[in-house]
């Protein structure tokens, strides 16, 4: 058979049927399935039924007929994925997925760092897996909402469930949201990431996803397609294409920490549409595990739908589980230490008091263990001597954070380092923190080694420092709760100084990459804290303006272009007054839509009052307009693209000039 375009999916029985035997095309193949990885185009096949050949590489499923009649054991898509390699590189490049968002991420540097202790949470994990394995015809809800308070083990259970489903070949994808981690705290790249994982878990649909992406590139960006439309085309449609092979075993998507996603409206829209979709197609072979705290926008959508099964984790967290986890943790920490070897410490009463004190909070238990076995250089106490003091702590995260932070306040740059970690748009390494603050790395390390009970401090200077739990971020960014440790948004200015300095340098370091990507975001956050009645920012940004004019940021945009696109016109004025070139051609515009700032400002800086007399005249060309001033000092140059009309009016209003 000659090569043909299409999807390379072949199902050919090993043994041919007897001559004259009539094949029942609706019956399932029997016998074990043998998978062969095949990396070249299909050029010649002797015979194949229902085959669709193409240049895309795929997998070949073959079945024997040795099993008893009627036995189905070769369902494509059931069991571990036959193809564990990466999807086509073109698809990977197009989707641009987040690689550290799934259950396979490195937990130590990509939080949440949560795993169930051996022998714990078996009952609740069993409930989730029983729901996931239920036959489609049992009409169980398509969504399981796992909810509970902070620290009760939601992420650990999500991790365990995702790992088990992956081993069974039933996991379509997983995504672990986490606040203040850049793209993982937003929903923008969620669908692309899920589609990428789906193409790995179900390689037979990778070519389909690739074709969809090629035919409609707009689906790949949240700026050109809604989240709902993206999800429909890149996730639901590909699964629909193989739904017949999943009729006995639906696949599952695990979404953890959904409450930590900043884009709450988009989350609500996605859940609403999923519920409506499953109501219309109750046999669709896809289910969702959603794990989160109870927040109003989630509660409204998930609490009353008949497509949602509720699982309150608080009711499934027992003292026995906490005790088992506690014993495992203590035994691990005591290995190699000069501690009693006869199991006399901690005794039964100490463990009982610890279990009561922890209050069924796994995150609190983990933090208590870290504090209990902290190096003696901190307070001169051994774990045995420290235990009574820990038992006096109130089981409240805020109190715990104060207990750990207060002894460190005398360290040089302590508050600057803490504030930088709290206000950063993504986790920073020790080197990045030091370079942003223009201090030595040893000064950062000297502070962080005392905070390992509430932060994940890496063993090197280049891996990110992450918060152990998002409640610490909430504590540090709340003036009422944080008190002296409050990370005031005004301190974005401190980060701006370092970021702009680094962005203007010729460095190619990770700090330089962060400064280019987020330096202007820090500046905008700081400008929101200043008096909005100020007429200009010239004096406000004194000292950083030369570097700000010189630096380039994301997509090689100048500060002038970034400010214009954000419509921060007082900043535009300050940059022009500081010497920014208004003739700079903007980056990233479509062909024919490049423009120069001077075109929007005109050859002179007019007074804002002149704009009142500006008349807009539409040219014969439908995509352009020209601007003329009845009594201006000189006419505006034209024609301008119609899309720039708003920019022109705003710029004229914003530029500070004498009348």
TrEMBL record:
Highest taxon, organism lineage: Eukaryota
Keywords: Repeat
Residue ranges of domain NACHT in the record: 142-293
UniProt keyword Repeat present: yes
Pfam family name, one: NPHP3_N
Region (Disordered): 1-32
Record PROSITE patterns: NACHT
SUPFAM superfamilies the record matches: P-loop containing nucleoside triphosphate hydrolases
Keyword hit for tRNA processing: no
Protein name per UniProt: NACHT domain-containing protein
């Amino acid at each position: 058979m000659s090569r043909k375009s299409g999807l390379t999916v072949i199902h050919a029985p090993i043994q041919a049927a007897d001559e004259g035997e009539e094949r029942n095309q609706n019956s399932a193949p029997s016998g074990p399935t043998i998978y062969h990885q095949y990396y070249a185009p299909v050029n010649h096949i002797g015979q194949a039924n229902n085959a669709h050949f193409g240049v895309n590489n795929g997998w070949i499923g073959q079945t024997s007929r040795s099993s008893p009649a009627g036995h189905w054991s070769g369902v494509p898509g059931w069991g571990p994925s036959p193809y564990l390699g990466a999807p086509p590189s073109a698809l990977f490049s197009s989707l641009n997925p987040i690689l550290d968002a799934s259950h396979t991420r490195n937990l130590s540097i990509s939080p949440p760092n949560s795993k169930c202790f051996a022998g714990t949470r078996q009952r609740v994990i069993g409930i989730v897996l029983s729901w996931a394995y239920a036959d489609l015809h049992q009409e169980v809800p398509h969504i399981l909402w796992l909810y509970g308070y902070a620290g009760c083990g939601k992420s650990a259970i999500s991790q365990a469930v995702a790992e088990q489903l992956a081993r069974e070949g039933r996991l379509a994808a997983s995504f672990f949201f986490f606040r203040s981690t850049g793209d993982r705290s937003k929903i923008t790249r969620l669908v692309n990431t899920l589609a990428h994982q789906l193409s790995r878990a179900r390689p037979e649909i990778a070519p389909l996803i690739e074709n969809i992406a090629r035919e409609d590139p707009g689906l790949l960006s949240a700026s050109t397609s809604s989240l709902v439309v993206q999800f429909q085309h890149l996730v639901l449609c590909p699964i629909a294409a193989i739904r017949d092979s999943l009729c006995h075993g639906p696949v599952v998507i695990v979404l953890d920490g959904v409450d930590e996603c900043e884009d709450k409206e988009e989350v609500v829209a996605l859940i609403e549409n999923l519920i409506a979709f499953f109501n219309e197609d109750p046999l669709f072979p896809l289910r969702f595990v959603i794990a989160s705290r109870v927040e109003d926008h989630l509660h409204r959508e998930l609490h009353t739908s008949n497509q949602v099964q509720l699982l309150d984790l608080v009711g499934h967290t027992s003292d026995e589980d906490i005790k088992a986890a506690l014993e495992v943790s203590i035994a691990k920490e005591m290995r190699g230490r000069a501690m009693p070897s006869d199991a006399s410490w901690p005794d039964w009463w100490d463990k009982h008091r610890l279990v009561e004190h922890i209050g069924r909070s796994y995150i609190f238990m983990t933090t208590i263990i870290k504090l209990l076995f902290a190096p003696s250089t901190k307070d001169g106490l051994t774990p045995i001597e420290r235990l009574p003091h820990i038992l006096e702590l109130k089981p409240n995260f805020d109190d715990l954070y104060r207990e750990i932070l207060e002894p460190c306040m005398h360290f040089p740059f302590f508050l600057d380092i803490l504030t930088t970690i709290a206000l950063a748009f993504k986790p920073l390494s020790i080197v990045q923190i030091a370079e942003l603050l223009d201090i030595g790395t040893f000064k950062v390390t000297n502070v962080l080694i005392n905070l390992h009970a509430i932060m994940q401090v890496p063993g090197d200077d280049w891996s990110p420092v992450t918060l152990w739990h998002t409640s610490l971020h909430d504590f540090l960014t709340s003036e009422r709760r944080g008190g002296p440790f409050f990370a005031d948004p005004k301190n974005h200015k401190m980060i701006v100084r370092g970021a702009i300095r680094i962005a203007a340098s010729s460095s190619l370091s990770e700090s330089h990459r962060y400064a280019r990507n987020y330096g202007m975001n820090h500046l905008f956050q700081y400008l929101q804290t200043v008096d909005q009645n100020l007429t200009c920012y010239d004096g406000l940004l004194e000292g950083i303006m030369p570097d700000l004019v010189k630096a380039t940021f994301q997509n090689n945009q100048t500060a002038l272009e970034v400010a214009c696109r954000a419509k921060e016109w007082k900043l535009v004025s300050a940059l022009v007054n500081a010497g920014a070139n208004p003739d700079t051609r903007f980056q990233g515009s479509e062909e024919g839509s490049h423009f120069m700032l001077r075109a929007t400002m005109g050859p002179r800086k007019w007074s804002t009052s002149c704009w009142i007399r500006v008349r807009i005249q539409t040219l014969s060309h439908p995509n352009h307009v020209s601007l003329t001033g009845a009594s201006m000092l000189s006419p505006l140059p034209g024609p301008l693209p119609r899309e720039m009309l708003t920019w022109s009016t705003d710029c004229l209003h914003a530029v500070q000039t004498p009348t």
